[in-house]
Each structure stands twice: as structure tokens, then as C-alpha cells.
């Protein structure tokens, strides 16, 4: 039997097919655009996700040559927090507002005042943040009341794909945790939040644990994709909870860091741990009855992608000549710059920032730029700035009493030995890479396997299927060398915050 994982990401949707031992049989990724109609906005068309999903499933079935009837179950993962609004006929009412959209600062302040800051954290385990779904709902109510009046269903991105595949409105606890509509400790919808937003549970779909079977492939979806009607679809998980399963981070002491479009440090927790300042997120884990703590850098890989697209045409040309990825050339050049990038410090706030600042107004900065700096210094500075931001998250988690004994690296940034070494040196612990690079797609395939009875439990499946490939040990001398630059990095945000606030009003 086989398992399929579908990951609806910000850059594209990945469909992957695995055998019962976790070996990838075939995969396909379809990309789509991100729209920014105004500064700080971020939207996508749900139809683009659906088109990429259909194309991806068909491509994977064709590449693998297997009979779709041999697929025991399907798992769904996706970008978190996005707001998808449907009318009574299941039609999309407006473009989806994404996780990295920063327009709802005022709405979050209103919700905090109405609920109370302490009560907000007590119920939802997090402060009201513009990235979360609740503020987006309030924004639509205020600015597009005609849209809200026609809204009958509110879904997250992966759950919109579930609806298109099965005709069922459903979600699961790990992704729904990021909507700010759940009581995280009790793992159910929070009536206090629904009441203040004038919505009801019927608008949100049924709520499941990640391993539960939520629906089955419909006849219409089978016709479009080539899947077999009736194939089970499990609850699945938000992208980071799914990546945790795909990297084996399903027990205390385990953590992972991912550098994709955003950057995340994620630590498993068998008990619910809270940061009363709200600098990190506490959500339900994809492991039933457990939790995780997550720190988020809004523009991690996005920072390096921005630099590539705006400043690194020579590196892109060299990559074409050598037949390699432009990031290989860029990180090779970054390695020629010393720790501290010749006194150049980068703040990765291209899309505002979550951990630890919770500030949508802050913006990216190169501090210390001089005529002697080269593109090598710029590249290294961006990589270091992202690493410093992730280090803030690690230090907060350790301050909460969470054990982080080793970290699994995943995402595009994990492919860089230089970036892995930076993280190991800054965090003072070994950084591993998983034997499989499939991350979230593998994670939700495993969840589907548990739901279908192929595996006894999520931890048992991970212990059997997930291993490490490479290990990067920390260098004590480098750790010491980074400290003054890390301290300088941390001093810049407080100094610049008034200027960020002024800039936002211009």
C-alpha cells in the first residue's frame, strides 16, 4: 500500500507518494503567484492551489504508474492562518488573506481590548497577532461588510483543498490552533472568541485530531485527479506540525528549525507551555493530546530570495553556466566573508516580524553598510541576520524550560552546510538533517498511515521511518565570535522602533 501527502505552501503545492517504509516514489510541485495589492498585504487565489493540487496528483500518479486503489490514505498540510471565505454555494468570495499579511494591526488591538490581553493568552495561548486568522475575519467585517454578509464558511488553505477533494468542511487541531479561535488547552473551539467575532462553529467545519479520518475522496474529485473515490483523507496538519512529524520531532527534547519562505524553530512539548509575553506560539501538536512551541521569523528564506532577485544577477548567471542552483553560488560566496560579514548586520524584517517583536511596522535594515562591502558580505549578512532571529526563538524556549538537546534542520536553507554551521555555532548544539527531505508531505502521509491503521502511533511510525543523514557540530570558537554581533543585532530593534513607527505613517 501507498500513502500520499499534499502540502499547500506559499510558493507552491507539493504532491508526493510514499510507500509504507516512507520511501518517496514520486513527487510533483506546482508553483503559483503571491499578490501584494498594497504594502504589507499578501494574498493568493485558492483556485491556484486547487489547480496545482489536481495537476500534482495526476502527475504523481502518472510518474509512479501505480493503481490509485493502492493508496491507503491521503494527508493534507498547508500554510497556516490564511483566511478563505466561501458563500452558501461553496464559492470563494475574495482572495485568501495569507499568514504573512500585516493589515490587521488595528483589528488585533480591538480584539485584545474586547477579550482582555491576559484572557486572550489564557484561552488561545497567544496574543492577537496580524498573522492569525481572527484579525483577518474582523478586517473583512469592517472593510468588506458585503463579503462577510455572504460568508457561510471559513476555511484554512489546506482545508479548502480538503473541501474540493471531498466536499467536506473540516479542519484539525494543529492548523486550527493558529486561527486564534480555539481553546488550546482544551483542544476545542473557544466560544468567547467566536462570540466576539459574531461567528459560530458551523462556519468552521468539524474539528479533528490530526490522525483522524476526516472525509473521503468524492466522485467528482476522483474524476479530475485520477484518485479512487472513497480514499480516506486524514485530518492532516499545519505545515510546521506536519514538518515535525516528517522529521521525527514528536517527543520531548526534540526540535527542528526550518528556513523556507518564513523561518521556524519548533519544539515538541508533552505539557502545555506558555510564554506570557506572547513572543512564541503554543499550538496543539499533530501528536494527539500533546502540544508544541514555535518561534517564527517572517522573512527567512524570503530574505535571501529577495537578495537573489534584486542584487545577485551575476550569481544567477554563473549558476546557469554551471548547471547549479543560484543559492549554491551565493552561499559559496558568503563563506568567503568572515563572521560578522565585515561589520555588516542585517535585520530580516521585510514583512514585519513575529518572534520576538510582534511588530508589523518594522522593516528590513542593513546596518553598517560601507563602500568596502561586497555581495559576499551582503549574502552572509542576510544569512546571519536570519540566524540571529531564529536564535531569539531558541533562547526564549530554553527560558520556558523546554529542553532542546538537538535540532533537525529542514526547508531550503537546510541544504546549505554554511547555514547549518551558523545555526549549530549560535545555538551550541548539534544540527541534524533528516534522511528524507520531504518534510511536511511525508509528515501528513505518516499521519494518514496512522489514521488508516498502517502504523500504531505517530511516535512509533517516526521511530521506524525517520533517521538523520548529516550532523553538524558546534564550534566553540565560532560561538564566541558570534556573540558581539548577536548582541549588536539585538540592540538595533529597540533603537529603531520609533523610526519604524514613523515610517509606517509616511
Overall mean pLDDT stands at 95
Spatial extent as radius of gyration? 22 Å
Strand ordering within the main sheet: 18-19-17-16-22-23-24
**Low-confidence residue ranges:** none
Shape: globular
State the distance separating the first and last CA atoms.
59 Å
Percent of residues in β-strands? 15-25%
* Number of H- or I-type helical stretches: 18
Number of strands: 24
Largest sheet: 7 strands, mixed
- Structural class category: alpha+beta
Quick overview:
By secondary structure, the chain is α+β, with helices and mostly antiparallel strands. Helix content is 41%, strand content 21%.
Word description of this protein:
The protein is of the alpha+beta class and 506 residues long. Helix content is 41%, strand content 21%. It has a 7-stranded mixed β-sheet with strand order 18-19-17-16-22-23-24. The N and C termini lie far apart (59 Å). The mean pLDDT is 95.
Give a topology summary.
Elements: E1 2-8, E2 12-19, E3 24-31, E4 43-44, H1 46-64, E5 71-78, E6 84-86, E7 96-97, H2 105-115, H3 117-124, H4 133-143, H5 145-150, E8 153-155, H6 157-166, E9 170-172, H7 173-176, E10 182-183, E11 188-189, H8 191-196, E12 206-208, E13 213-216, H9 219-225, E14 232-234, E15 237-238, H10 239-246, E16 253-259, E17 263-269, E18 281-284, E19 291-297, H11 301-311, H12 313-322, H13 326-334, E20 345-347, E21 365-367, H14 375-399, E22 404-410, H15 417-427, E23 431-434, H16 439-451, H17 458-465, E24 468-472, H18 476-505
Parallel strand pairs: 1-5, 5-15, 9-12, 16-22, 22-23
Antiparallel strand pairs: 1-2, 2-3, 4-7, 6-8, 10-11, 13-14, 16-17, 17-19, 18-19, 20-21, 23-24
Helix pairs in contact: 1-6, 2-4, 10-16, 11-12, 11-14, 12-13, 13-14, 14-15, 15-18
Amino acid at each position: 500500500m501507498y500513502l500520499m501527502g499534499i502540502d499547500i505552501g506559499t510558493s507552491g503545492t507539493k504532491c508526493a507518494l510514499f510507500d509504507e517504509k516512507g520511501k518517496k516514489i514520486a513527487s510533483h510541485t506546482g508553483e503559483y503567484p503571491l499578490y501584494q495589492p498594497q504594502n504589507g498585504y499578501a494574498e493568493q487565489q485558492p483556485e491556484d492551489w486547487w489547480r496545482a493540487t489536481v495537476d500534482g496528483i495526476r502527475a504523481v500518479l502518472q510518474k509512479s504508474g501505480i493503481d490509485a486503489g493502492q493508496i491507503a490514505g491521503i494527508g493534507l498540510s498547508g500554510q497556516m492562518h490564511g483566511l478563505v471565505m466561501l458563500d452558501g454555494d461553496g464559492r470563494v468570495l475574495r482572495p485568501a488573506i495569507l499568514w504573512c499579511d500585516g493589515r490587521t494591526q488595528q483589528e488585533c488591538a480591538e480584539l485584545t481590548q474586547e477579550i482582555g490581553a491576559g484572557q486572550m493568552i489564557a484561552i488561545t495561548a497567544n496574543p492577537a497577532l496580524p498573522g492569525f486568522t481572527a484579525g483577518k475575519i474582523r478586517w473583512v467585517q469592517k472593510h468588506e461588510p458585503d463579503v462577510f454578509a455572504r460568508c457561510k464558511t471559513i476555511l484554512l488553505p489546506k482545508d479548502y483543498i480538503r473541501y474540493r477533494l471531498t466536499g467536506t468542511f473540516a479542519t484539525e487541531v494543529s492548523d486550527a490552533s493558529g486561527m486564534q479561535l480555539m481553546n488550546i488547552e482544551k483542544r476545542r473551539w473557544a466560544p468567547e472568541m467566536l462570540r466576539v467575532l459574531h461567528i459560530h462553529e458551523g462556519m468552521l467545519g468539524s474539528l479533528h485530531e490530526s490522525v483522524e479520518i476526516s472525509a473521503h475522496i468524492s466522485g467528482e474529485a476522483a474524476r479530475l485527479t485520477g484518485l479512487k473515490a472513497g480514499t480516506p483523507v486524514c485530518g492532516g496538519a499545519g505545515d510546521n506540525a506536519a514538518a515535525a512529524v516528517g522529521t521525527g520531532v514528536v517527543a520531548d527534547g526534540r526540535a527542528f528549525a526550518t528556513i523556507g519562505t518564513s523561518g521556524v524553530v519548533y519544539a515538541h512539548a508533552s505539557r502545555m507551555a506558555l510564554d506570557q509575553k506572547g513572543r512564541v506560539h503554543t499550538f496543539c501538536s499533530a501528536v494527539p493530546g500533546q502540544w508544541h512551541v514555535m518561534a517564527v521569523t517572517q522573512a527567512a528564506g524570503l530574505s535571501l530570495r529577495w537578495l537573489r532577485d534584486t542584487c545577485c544577477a551575476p550569481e544567477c548567471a554563473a549558476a546557469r553556466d554551471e548547471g547549479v542552483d543560484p543559492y549554491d553560488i551565493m552561499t559559496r560566496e558568503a563563506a568567503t566573508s568572515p563572521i560578522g560579514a565585515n561589520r555588516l548586520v542585517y535585520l530580516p524584517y521585510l514583512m514585519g516580524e513575529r518572534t520576538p517583536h510582534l511588530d508589523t511596522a518594522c522593516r528590513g535594515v542593513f546596518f553598517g553598510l560601507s563602500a568596502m562591502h561586497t555581495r559576499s558580505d551582503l549574502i552572509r549578512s542576510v544569512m546571519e541576520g536570519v540566524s540571529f532571529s531564529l536564535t531569539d526563538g531558541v533562547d526564549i524556549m530554553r527560558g520556558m524550560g523546554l529542553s532542546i538537546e538537538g535540532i533537525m534542520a529542514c526547508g531550503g536553507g537546510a541544504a546549505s552546510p554554511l547555514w547549518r554551521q551558523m545555526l549549530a555555532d549560535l545555538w551550541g548544539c548539534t544540527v541534524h538533517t533528516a534522511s528524507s527531505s520531504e518534510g511536511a508531505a511525508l509528515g501528513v502521509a505518516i499521519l494518514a498511515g496512522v489514521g488508516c491503521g498502517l502504523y500504531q502511533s505517530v511516535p512509533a511510525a517516526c521511530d521506524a521511518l525517520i533517521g538523520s543523514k548529516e550532523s553538524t557540530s558546534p564550534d566553540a570558537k565560532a560561538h564566541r565570535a558570534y556573540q558581539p554581533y548577536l548582541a549588536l543585532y539585538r540592540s538595533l530593534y529597540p533603537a529603531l522602533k520609533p523610526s519604524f513607527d514613523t515610517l509606517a505613517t509616511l
